Amino acid sequence: MNKADLRQKYKGKRQKLSLEEIEEKSLAIANNLLLLDVWDKTYFHVFLPIVEQKEVDTEFVLQILAGKDKEIVISKSDFETREMLHFLLTDNTKIVKNEYNIPEPVNGLPVPTAMIDVVFVPLLAYDKKGNRVGYGKGFYDKFLSQCKPDVIKIGLSFFEPEEQIDDVIETDVKLDFCVTGEEVFRF
């Protein structure tokens, strides 16, 4: 399937999920993240979910990271440049939804991309080779291509992988893992 068809299919699948299912599946995903060998790293980038899009709730991931005393990094999107600016999440970080309902930091301590060790990546769909489909704006592909070469890229998904995404392009950045509530996929 191509990306446009996959976007439509998985937006529809997510909209059918109840709030209880999202919470249960998000907790199961967080629990499966504990199986990964990434917890010796320091800087973890986490997306804050767009609730209206029924994204994976990363609150459980944030709790794990805080419990392990990790540095948590969140981003603000610049829709003109398609760049993401990264900030340390602290008790003083004020978070506000932007015009696309993306929760973002208003202020904070900037974190250079080169410091980030692990990125939890939002997605709509992914395939068995680690290719992903997002909303199509290219923010994460651009961000991930600017990270250090050994950054660990972990997709979070409610669903199993597709066999193949047909229209992958050179600038698409592959995942290293994708974690569902049932399984950890390694690519």
What is the H/E string?
Answer: HHEHEEEEEEEHEEE
Give a count of the beta strands, DSSP E runs of length 2 or more. 11
Q: Into which percentage range does the β-strand content fall?
A: 15-25%
Q: What is the structural class?
A: alpha/beta
- Which strand order do you get reading across the main beta sheet? 3-2-1-6-9-10-11
Termini separation comes to 19 Å
The pLDDT mean sits at 96
Rounded to the nearest angstrom, the radius of gyration is 15 Å
Major sheet attributes: 7 strands, mixed
**Segments where pLDDT lies below 50 for 5+ residues?**
none
Helix content: 10-25%
Shape: globular
Helix run count = 4
In short:
The model has no long low-confidence stretch (mean pLDDT 96).
Q: Can you describe what's shown?
A:
The protein is built from four helices and eleven strands. Helices cover 24% and strands 22% of the residues. It starts with a helix and ends with a strand. It is globular, with a radius of gyration of 15 Å. By secondary structure, the chain is α/β, with parallel strands linked by helices.
Summarize this structure as a short list of keywords or feature phrases.
24% helix; seven-stranded mixed beta sheet; alpha/beta; 22% strand; 187 residues; two-stranded antiparallel sheet; 11 strands
